Amino acid sequence: MICENYFLQLDISSKSITFAAKNKCNDTKMDKKITSMIRVRMSAHDAHYGGNLVDGAKMLQLFGDVATELLIIRDGDEGLFCAYDNVEFLAPVYAGDYIEAVGEITAVGNSSRKMVFEARKVIVPRTDISASAADVLDDPVVVCRASGTCVVPKNCQRK
């Protein structure tokens, strides 16, 4: 990682120029896009509300799994999820739906990793036809989007 620290401050009243530090990092490891995807069927066990509705927190759990894989790919360590900056629940998820959760590292600091996530419904059950019928959606339905920050302590970074 190449970090350069530059900050120029001009104080006209004292006619002085101060050269101080301001963090600006260029990470050479961000040259390639790092992504991850998992696909999971929501089960009756995942349904938390009436009508077999799945709790939105299940999407965040999937994003956590995607984040873990991204950190392992990037740093060789599972790291820690610090915080979500934004979460949007956009469509309902039901037991029997297949959800594809994807994520990407968008920015890298010394130990922090900014990420974006999206969960899409790709297969839906068709219980109106039979108990085992299902359809693959031509156009997946985005059910949740989020962004957040993970951390891999410097002493745990192996790549």
**CATH superfamily caption:** Hotdog Thioesterase
Do you know the CATH topology?
Answer: Thiol Ester Dehydrase, Chain A
Euclidean distance between termini CA atoms: 11 Å
Helix- and strand-based class? mainly beta
CATH top level class name: Alpha Beta
* Biggest sheet overview: 5 strands, antiparallel
Q: H/E order of the elements?
A: EEEEEHEEEE
Taken together, the total number of domains comes to 1
Q: What characteristic shape results from the CA principal axes?
A: elongated
- Cα-based radius of gyration, to the nearest Å: 22 Å
Rounded mean pLDDT is 85
* CATH architecture call: Roll
User: Largest sheet, order of strands side by side?
Assistant: 3-7-8-9-6
Number of strands: 9
Percentage of helical residues? 10-25%
Low-confidence stretches: 1-28
Number of helices: 1
Binned strand content: over 45%
What does it look like?
- By secondary structure, this protein is mostly beta strands.
- It has one domain (30-156): Thiol Ester Dehydrase, Chain A (Roll).
- It has one helix spanning 57-75, and strands at 2-11, 16-26, 35-41, 47-49, 53-54, 80-89, 98-108, 112-125, 134-151.
- Strands 3-7-8-9-6 form a 5-stranded antiparallel β-sheet, with helices on one face. Strands 1-2 form a two-stranded antiparallel ribbon.
- Strand 7 and strand 8 (112-125) form a beta hairpin.
